[in-house]
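Loading example: each entry is read as two labelled lines plus one structure line.
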Amino acid sequence: MRLKTRGVLPGFGLSLGYTVFYVGLLVLLPLSAMIIKASSLGPSEFWSKVTDDRALAAYKLSFGSAFAGSLLNAVFGVLVAWVLVRYRFPGRSIVDALVDLPFALPTAVAGIALTTVYAEHGIIGEQLAKIGVKVAFTPLGVTMALTFIGIPFVVRTVQPVLEEIDPDVEEAAAVLGASRFQTFRRVIFPALLPATLTGFALAFARSLGEYGSVVFISGNMPMRTEITPLLIVTKLEQYDYAGATAIAAVMLMASFGMLLLVNLLERWARRAEA
Amino acid sequence: MSGIVTQRAKSAQRRDTQVGESMLVRVLLITVALGFLGLFLIAPIATIFSAAFSKGVEPYWTALTQDDTVSAIWLTLLTAGISVPLNVVFGIAAAWLISKYDFWGKSILVTVVDLPFSVSPVISGLIFVLLFGARGWFGPLLSDHDIKIIFAVPGIVMATTFVTFPLVARELIAVMQAQGSDEEEAALTLGASGLQILLRITLPKVRWGLLYGVILCNARAMGEFGAVSVVSGHIRGLTNTLPLQVEILYNEYNFVGAFAVSSLLCALALVTLCVKKVAEWSVSSRQAKRDASARALAVPASATVNLQGMIP
């Protein structure tokens, strides 16, 4: 089969060959090894491994806290993007730069820092303990860590869309008698919705697999605060390779589903922009 | 997240609108937004540095110069020193391929390049254990030849390379697609070879995107925790990278030590963010300059019509 190329520059064969070789060796080969290993288990064994009580509790915690964290990020992400794009205040560009911190900071460092801040004797945890809220070593702590991890996603997907919104549209709405809140709800928000959902999905996908920042703050009690990635590690440490692989396969399918959803959302967002 | 540098550079300047919120609403919204970031971003960073120096400078320095920590620093530098260059070469090849040509299967390739982003770090480690571990595909073969990959340095390098490999490619793809290939094609007609075009035209054009990609890839390579923790085996002084050292010190209740090592990694992250800001500024100022010169060169439509009318 001959590949149809459109482009006059040299180097197509070389760059294609190298890229496919590298991707195949480093990504596709290891991932397919895992899928083959998981499918060698046999349906009933696979099913019993991925649906035992401990695994179900872990999925519930992982999906639930990832959803809650991403939802929190969707709301505050739009707000932060709005404030950064529309208003000028001292330190704005520093704040703008810091939004990417969870992307660059090692997860283990984030984990111990969040645990120290939100533990019972930490600067914020102490205040929360007074009103009876326990964060560290509870599902709430898991949600906090996953919120931290997801901060950049919604802000960075919404920001460019917000910058592109034509002020004329808002002025027209105001001239036609809409209040500021009505303008936001009826004019601006619909334009931001595709980007917000994309950011939400990206944050959710990242949170599902997150490990380093969660293991310190969660306390890792089986059935209560054990996230799915930690369950995989626990099974590996007990040399239960089959069990670890089966649960990893479930998580992998979930991430592929999210990836597909993100692609569809991005296509929708592009169409909404055009 | 793709193309952070280009996206953000597009329109940094604000347009003043006639409509807007009242001062009170503005202050309220800014306060809530900053409060959210303060709780989740500022408080943790402040804690890292204050806990690291809580007992003064000397314990901080002692913690960093401990034997295990020093060997973790060396292993981290070695790991990043191997996986970052590999991913840079791959990133340039993949970005050239994806931004300069149209071919069947391109969108599939782009998706596959992004795959490691959506895979849990734990799974990224697991796949290498399944391949090279004692009971993995190549396990028996490796033990026959006395080669150790899992619970040894090669496994750490592989897992790190896997986790960080889209970073350079994504940045470059976005920048190169935004800039187009007009200059490259002009160079080709003037007789430049492919290598000359790459070295003299493309790479200088994308240097800020490339720099940010490299720095981010480096920060992530040095800070990877989940994947490395699965393949490393946690052998002190031998297979501990800096983030794993943080975990060990923390679990031993050596908080000054854990936060001292963390402060190094946090400083690296802050430097990465600074480089990104500088890259954005330089891209947007270059764009503004180009827009200005394009405007100066453009002949107004009416002038053209007049000229045509004057030609007998």
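The mean pLDDT of chain B is 85.
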